[in-house]
Design a protein that fits this description.
Layout (H helix, E strand, L loop, with lengths): L1 E12 L4 E11 L5 E9 L5 E7 L2 H16 L1 H5 L3 E8 L5 H4 L2 H8 L2
Length: about 110
């Protein structure tokens, strides 16, 4: 699978001992279905991995939107917010369709 979009986020809080990584990748498989891969866990430890596949782009959009929006509530839930550590997109990848506007404004533009 070729990753067309990858966004990796990290949240760090020394006083709470939170050091978390969250990564979302989007790509296409050999059958031209959309595949969303989510990796998460403690920084420095092996990351857990979930994969979601769908032939229609709307389902893949919904998974990405849901997962990234949830990271916005991290300060309330875990006491520290996520920041972007890695961001890559293939040329011509429509970012506004894949990444919710509030995530772009909060995580990437700040």
């Amino acid at each position: 699978m070729l990753d067309l979009l990858t966004i990796a986020l990290e949240a760090h809080s020394d006083e709470r001992n939170h050091h978390r990584r969250y990564e979302v990748s989007v790509g296409r498989d050999l059958l031209d279905h959309w595949v969303v891969t989510v990796r998460y866990g403690r920084v420095g430890a092996p990351l857990r991995e979930l994969r979601f596949g769908s032939p229609d782009v709307e389902s893949a959009h919904a998974v990405v939107h849901d997962r990234l929006r949830r990271r916005l509530s991290a300060p309330r839930r875990i006491g520290c917010g996520y920041g972007v550590r890695l961001f890559s997109a293939a040329p011509g990848m429509p970012l506004r369709a894949w990444i919710p506007a509030e995530v772009l404004n909060t995580l990437i533009m700040s």
